[in-house]
Amino acid sequence: MEWKKCYLDVVLVPLGFLTVLAYHVWLWHKVRTQPHRTIIGINAAGRRLWLSAIMKNNEKNNILAVQTLRNTIMGSTLMATTSILLCSGLAAVISSTYSVKKTLNYAVYGAHGEFMLALKYVTLLLVFLFSFLSHSLSIRFINQVNFLVNCPQSHEPHDHCTSAITPDYISDLLEKGFILNTVGNRIFYAALPLLLWIFGPVLVFLCSLTMVPVLYNLDLVFGNGQGSNGKKVNEMGPDSEGYLQSV
Predict the structure, then answer these.
(1) Which neighbouring-strand residues pair with 232?
(2) pLDDT tens figures, 175-192
(3) How far is it, in rounded angstroms, from Cα 187 to Cα 112?
(4) Is 197 exposed, middle or buried, given 0-12, 13-18 or 19+ CB atoms closer than 10 A?
(5) pLDDT digits (tens, 9 = 90+) for 207-227
(6) How many H-runs (helices) and E-runs (strands) does the chain carry?
(7) What are the Cα distances from residue 58, in Å, to 14, 50, 54, 191?
(8) Own/partner long-range contacts of 50-59 (Cβ < 8 Å, ≥24 apart)
(9) What is the CA 208 to chain-centroid distance, rounded?
(10) Counting beta carbons within 10 angstroms of the beta carbon of residue 75, is it exposed (0 to 12), middle (13 to 18) or buried (19 or more)?
């Protein structure tokens, strides 16, 4: 009897998340092999070119660099704050004595037991916690870039500490920060199907199937890799493409 009550949850929920996971594995492969065909790859190359231009003329662009990085930190801070507030709300719901199960027993398919309801809330809690962790680490790396981008470049060969702060090193830190920001956002998006899981596993599966084409249209560049000015995207330079393939 227990299997008959929860077989939809056991089948549809993992199947929906495996679909989204398979898409992101394919996207990761696409970014590594054809970065100029993805929004993530093009943005990474643009950030590398931006940082190089900032550091070449640092005396004039230092304020611009700090303001741009500050805006990025504010975005990550907003997402981290939202995630931890949702964690606090879910923790309050889990620890409360009020049970919402009774109002949903006849409104959803799948299991309705106390254990399954607790599993749904705990899974949501973990998802928001991992999103908070990713955004917090992203803020850490971008804060480091905020300091290092204005450091004077040393040309003395014996100054090992200062000579290690190169544009490539700072670019790597910046990319780590943005990668963690992207991971945190994608984990946050995964909470939407989990929220619908409260109303049944069928909605989880349908929401996961809907997210894949939406993310596909947002992540890929169409039109033979040409931008609005008619130039090919992969004409940003061989150095940028080689850097993306090594990320």
Answers:
(1) 226
(2) 999 999 999 999 999 999
(3) 26
(4) buried
(5) 999 999 999 999 998 875 444
(6) 8, 0
(7) 50, 12, 6, 41
(8) 51/149, 51/167, 51/170, 51/171, 51/174, 52/167, 52/171, 54/149, 55/149, 55/153, 55/167, 55/170, 58/149, 58/150
(9) 17
(10) middle
**Collapsed DSSP state (helix, strand, coil) of residue 38:** strand
Q: pTM for the full model?
A: 0.79
Residues 6 or more apart in contact with residue 29 via CB below 8 angstroms: none
Residue 223 gets the label, from left (phi > 0), alpha (psi -120 to 50) or beta, of left
Tokens of 67: 């303001």
Q: What is the largest CA-CA distance in the chain?
A: 76
Contacts 24+ apart (CB under 8 A), 112-121: 112/5, 113/5, 113/6, 116/6, 116/9, 117/198, 118/94, 120/194, 120/197, 120/198, 121/90, 121/93, 121/94
The tokens describing 221, both together, are 């560049």
Whether the Cβ atoms of residue 205 and residue 15 lie closer than 8 Å to each other: yes
The answer to whether residues 141 and 68 touch, using CB atoms and an 8 Å cutoff, is no
